[in-house]
Amino acid sequence: MTETKTTETTQAAQAAPEASTTTPAPPADPAHPAELDALPAFSGWAAKMPYLRDSKAKRRRKVMRSLKEAIIRSGLTDGDTISFHHHFREGDKVILQVVSQLAELGLENLTLASSSLNNCHAGLVEYIRSGVIGRIYTSGMRGELARQISAGGLLQHPVTIHSHGGRAALMETGELKPKVAFLGVSACDEYGNANGFTGRAHCGSLGYARTDAQYAEQVILLTEQIVDYPNTPASIRQDQVDFVVEVDEVGDPSRINVGAVRNTKNPRDLLIARRAAAVMEFGGYFEDGFSMQTGSGGAATATTLYLKDRMERAGIKAAWALGGITGTLASLHEQGLVGRLLDVQSFDAGAAESLATSPAHTEISAAEYASPLAKACCVDELDMVILSALEIDLKFNVNVLTGSDGLMMGASGGHCDTAAGAKLVIVVAPLIRSRIPTVVEKVSTLITPGDNVDVLVTDYGIAVNPRSVGVAERLRAAGLKPTTIGDLYEQALKICGKPRQIERGDEIVGIVRYRDGSVIDTVRNVPSA
Amino acid sequence: MLFVPGSNASWLSTVHVYGADTVMFDLEDSVALREKDTARILVREALMSPIWKDVEVCVRVNAIDTPFFRPDLEAIVPAGVAIVRLPMVRDADMVRELDRVLTEIEEKCGREVGSTKCMAAVESASGVVNAVQIAKASSRMVAIALAAYDYMIDMHTVRGTAADESELFYARCAVLHAARVAGIPCYDVVYSDVNDEEGFLREIGIIKRLGFDGKSLVNPRQIEPLHNAYAPTEAEVDRAKRVIEAADKAEAEGLGVVSLDGKMVDAPIVASAYRTVRLAELSGTRR
């Protein structure tokens, strides 16, 4: 009946212009439009939301007694994708807590998608071996987990390595579709409003987690504390959260700035940082209102220290800094030398504190930060970025994933994202690490194409990419004496000799995705690992 | 002058990148007893490596009354060491003995006699009292340095008791005067708390006012602050350049007297101006 009626209406509407060009014909039955039948009729104010009748039920409806209950209620099944953030870096207590619970529930073949993995996640090996985890998406990994995966024969599928912006893009295209995002927060209210600076264990920005909250089908918050409503400003919002579970610990904030984002006292890192600051001053973009980012790695984060002096002497202020925000950057912001901070992850307690207190220090999501598929992202507006490298080759290609032993030991991070966006890309690295040269003929794993790298700063000298027009001339005019990357390569060979090639097997253990989703490289196993 | 433990192979091959004016490989206090042979061999090899060809390298040997003294010299002199630093120098005889042994080894290995320079480290009350004779004891002497640790024990006091470092005041003045009498540079003690930059800078302030030419350093992180503190200001460099210009002009015009802004400029001021400009070339201007 309905069908016939619809057809008649359509025919009448199509016939109308022929009948009259000025007055459209009225619908067949204006008193009873067709779509009305498809809509549900009102059946009482709380029919769909019965919990609204009971103020306690209303408040407690998302709060689960245990993680197990939350998992069961989420409907997670074998083969699904689960996602996590790595804002606590080496202090993360969520991933293993959740995965051991999933194992107890007998779930199998899950895809684990964490924004990154660290040394503290070595315990995952056991769950990969027992089949709970079948596939991994991550920005990087370190330690025992990385060693075992790199050796081969552990995971059924190669690990997908993505950048931070690339992860948001994979979610946007739907390739990475978390069934459940398990997001650890220091505190939230009963509805799930959460940020990284209330409660005890402050991680600061929840930028990566925000993307998970946006794209995951279900969001389970693991919180150390439930606080009064409304816990605003909320990074993860009540309208995104399905369940809230109170747990003893989600992370140890004192372990955020160990490892890759440590504060360095190493004289070599400081020497490189001082030179990098000089390159920033004279590279052509050091003018009032500039923007910058420093990546992880001792020398990269230390550059900020030396930049301060140069800014004060020149009477120049930065309009904004992006990142990867450190306490040092936050202190520059506090002193008025950096106008705004856009924070996708906080590298230490100083940064977390600043995010909580300064109105011009704002949190951004991974997509806002760096996704090439976002309608706009911050990296595209960067003037300068300081990045690290495990290897850099004669064409300025950079590897930040595999170490000199061939094993995965680093992370793609925002490396290729910021390199693509920034006007002046400065890579800092010691020329030699424990008798192995950092400057090589060809990188063992390609993460960031050399087309996007302008300057390499090492303890032995500065090399400028010949593609970067005018940079070498400007540095030379400032008395910095840049050399060529070939010269640095020769210097390293003179000291170390040419290292033997790592023997690799036939198994592909890692697929490196460029930020746009394309495959830029693969990593083969190292049987001797 | 940056101290580098002679047993640290990694530093021996990389530490030149930090830009110290002189690097001192140590065979003495920073080397454990059982590492003495290793360190001696490592330092000998480092001296012969091309990476050190553009850097002034000094080696601190073990004291003259130890069994390591002679083997140390026999390893490093043929390897081409520029300067030998002799620790625990109490009197001029010790320098003369070093001179004699150096001559013997130079003759034996075919190195030009006298080409190995030396510096003496004064670390005791007798060393301080004999500083003038020590500084003038040999034509090989290119510098004298004060070292505080043993001297403090000798004087029954400890370091850091007074903000003005008065516990070192006499020794600093005595050694510095000896250096000036002999016409050689003078280097101050190490500042061992590398994390205390404030204390380090305060000490540099004191020694720079006294007239020291430099300082012994224990960590590469100390190089830049020391250089910066000794670097002349931009105003000082400008003034020095004007003095030199005026001196050049006076010479070109055949005038015996140099004048600038209506005032006469003495020869020592011209010499000081040249030193300022040279220092700025090496260390830049002060931040």
What descriptors fit this protein?
heterodimer, A: alpha/beta, 10-stranded mixed sheet, 8-stranded mixed sheet, 25 strands, disordered N terminus, B: 287 residues, 8-stranded parallel sheet, two-stranded antiparallel sheet, 10 strands, 14% strand, globular
Low-confidence stretches of chain A: 1-17
Query: What's the order of the H and E elements of chain B?
Result: EHEHEHEHEHHEHHEHEHHEEH
User: Sheet bearing the most strands of chain B, described?
Assistant: 8 strands, parallel
**Number of distinct beta strands of chain B:** 10
Tell me the span between the first and last alpha carbons of chain B. 21 Å
Termini of chain A, distance in Å? 71 Å
| Structural class based on helices, strands and sheet pairing of chain B | alpha/beta
Strand coverage percent of chain A:
15-25%
> What is the average per-residue confidence, as pLDDT of chain B, rounded to a whole number?
93
Oligomeric status of the shown chains? Answer: heterodimer
- Tally the helices of chain B: 12
Query: What general outline of chain B do the C-alpha atoms trace?
Result: globular
The coarse silhouette of chain A is globular
Largest sheet of chain A: 10 strands, mixed
